[in-house]
Specification:
Length: about 90
């Protein structure tokens, strides 16, 4: 028996085993999709979840100086001003 004959015999045996397993196995019931709990209403949110105006911007940076924010493939963001005319970005 050649190598190819051995491979063919193993493949056919594997196929026959899979067919036998599929025919004898009972069908599984469909699992229900998980359901997320309802979102809390505005009154039910704890004080820690309510946003604070101006909390995300540091006090030392002026609000009018916004950055481009373009991200490269490694996750770095551009440090040039928003809407810059330069063709390239400066990442940091």
């Amino acid at each position: 028996m050649s190598k190819m004959d051995n491979l063919r015999a193993m493949r056919e045996a594997k196929y026959a085993e899979a067919q036998k397993r599929a025919a004898g196995a009972p069908a599984k019931p469909a699992a229900k999709a998980p359901v997320a709990p309802p979102a809390p209403t505005r009154a039910a949110r704890p004080a820690a979840m309510t946003p604070v105006v101006g909390a995300d911007t540091p006090a030392d940076t002026p609000a009018d100086e916004e950055l481009c924010g373009h991200r490269n493939m490694s996750g770095r963001s551009c440090t040039r001003e928003r809407g810059h005319a330069a063709k390239s970005h400066r990442y940091s």
